[in-house]
Write a sequence for this structure.
């Protein structure tokens, strides 16, 4: 039987392909091979000396992983720096930052003023809101200063009576404590104005110069120099009727008097000791001990010094 | 044929990029014949095919520092070969390839006559090959290239489209036309 003509006339694709693949015999000349391979060896030597192929590296999985790692490290570093900054900020923050002002949501039980007489000042100009809180925070200093002056006891009595009159004044409650903290921080940073200029600037500018935060490092004169205008007002003669001039609304203490934090209190006591007023310091420390009976002794020693702390006890 | 046990072309190329010359030798040994025959069939001139073959492989060597295995190495290799061929056509006044009979292939140099001239009409394997190569040489350039890329280089339709810069349908159509023409030519030669 003869082969079907159709299959012979129409070879299938597979037969054609097989036939073609059987014809694949041609190869490049050996000289061409040698030239190409020599060039390849030279290139390989260069690549080996370079030791790194960025193309392969970029293409692989290392690039995204490395990028993600770099980003994570950067974020972690920023977070760490921020945390460190916050910690330092807290550490260097003046005691005012821990004052629990009622307006700032502090617990009501903390809003108890220390047993320090609060002076009254004449009702002259209304102080700016931002500077007002420092006025009352100077109360311990005023008390110390007034205690050092002749006739301090009588003046303290007058001030106590006026402080009672000033109770209920809500102006102080609206004063943001952050302003006080910022002002005190400025003082700590060395932007404290000279005492003389503060005294000349009048009652409104005196609180801003109060060096409460720098009490531990400032000289006693500088410590109390900022409140010179207040002292002037305290020493001002009484009215014709013998009564003291009422304090301005912004400087009158309210029923929700600012609260001294323990550290702030200790700094004040240390300021008293630095000023040589051991009696007032002892009195303030006694009040402190009653207010904070469980306060760590090591912290007290740290702030006041071991000898001073021992002497106050 | 490619050794499936050994490394792939892409791995060999990456090894070469890291300075392994032996990897390139292995890679070159796999594909040197296919590339050379691609040029030989397309341009119809052994010397020209050798020159273009050398150019393409030297480009592969120079590519070592920039190689990125985004596609099959063969697709990349034949894309470079296609571009080199197109450059040749553009420079040459006679862009169409010459007849296969002028080439260095022994089989092509010993072309048989037409089947009707033979006293016996039984063709040997060599004669069938020669007929097929002749028919292939007479194919239109694009169809011949598609045939070579499919059955010489082993590229898929998609890879052929990538290498030649055409659509998949165009590559598929060219391959179908090429196969039909070859069948018809072989049929004419054998009857």
């Amino acid at each position: 039987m003869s082969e079907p003509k159709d299959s012979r006339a129409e070879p299938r694709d597979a037969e054609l392909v097989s036939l073609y693949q059987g014809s694949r015999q041609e190869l490049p000349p050996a000289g061409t091979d040698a030239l190409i391979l020599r060039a390849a060896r030279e290139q390989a030597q260069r690549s080996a000396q370079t030791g790194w192929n960025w193309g392969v590296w970029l293409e692989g999985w290392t690039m995204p992983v490395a990028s993600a790692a770099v980003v994570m490290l950067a974020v972690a570093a920023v977070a760490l720096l921020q945390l460190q900054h916050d910690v330092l900020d807290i550490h260097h923050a003046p005691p005012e930052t821990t004052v629990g002002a009622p307006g700032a949501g502090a617990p009501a039980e903390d809003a108890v003023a220390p047993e320090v007489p609060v002076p009254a000042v004449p009702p002259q100009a209304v102080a700016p809101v931002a500077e007002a809180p420092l006025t009352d925070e100077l109360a311990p200093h005023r008390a110390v200063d007034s205690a050092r002056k002749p006739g301090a006891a009588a003046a303290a009595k007058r001030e106590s009576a006026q402080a009672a009159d000033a109770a209920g004044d809500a102006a102080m409650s609206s004063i943001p404590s952050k302003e006080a903290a910022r002002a005190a921080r400025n003082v700590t940073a060395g932007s404290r104005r000279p005492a003389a200029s503060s005294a000349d600037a009048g009652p409104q500018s005196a609180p801003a110069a109060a060096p409460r935060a720098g009490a531990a490092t400032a000289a006693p004169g500088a410590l109390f120099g900022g409140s010179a205008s207040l002292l002037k007002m305290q020493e001002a003669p009484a009215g014709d009727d013998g009564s003291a001039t009422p304090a301005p609304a912004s400087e009158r203490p309210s029923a929700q008097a600012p609260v001294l934090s323990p550290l702030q209190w200790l700094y004040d006591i240390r300021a008293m000791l630095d000023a040589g007023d051991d009696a007032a310091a002892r009195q303030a420390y006694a009040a402190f001990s009653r207010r904070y009976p469980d306060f760590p002794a090591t912290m007290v020693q740290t702030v006041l010094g071991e000898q001073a702390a021992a002497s106050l006890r | 044929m490619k050794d499936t046990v050994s490394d792939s072309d892409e791995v060999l190329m990456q090894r070469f990029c890291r300075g392994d010359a032996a990897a390139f030798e292995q890679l070159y040994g796999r594909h040197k014949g296919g590339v050379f025959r691609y040029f030989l069939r397309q341009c119809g001139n052994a010397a020209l095919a050798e020159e273009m073959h050398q150019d393409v492989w030297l480009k592969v060597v120079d590519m070592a520092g920039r190689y990125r295995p985004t596609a099959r190495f063969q697709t990349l290799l034949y894309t470079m070969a296609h571009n080199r061929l197109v450059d040749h056509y553009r420079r040459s006044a006679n862009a169409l390839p010459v007849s296969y009979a002028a080439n260095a292939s022994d089989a092509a140099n010993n072309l048989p006559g037409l089947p009707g001239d033979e006293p016996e009409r039984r063709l040997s394997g060599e004669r069938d090959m020669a007929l097929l190569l002749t028919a292939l040489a007479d194919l239109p350039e694009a169809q011949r290239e598609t045939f070579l890329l499919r059955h010489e280089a082993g590229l898929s339709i998609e890879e052929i489209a990538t290498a030649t810069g055409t659509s998949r349908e165009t590559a598929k159509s060219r391959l179908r036309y090429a196969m039909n023409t070859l069948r018809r030519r072989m049929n004419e030669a054998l009857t």
Summary: The mean pLDDT of chain B is 81. Chain B has nine helices and no strands.
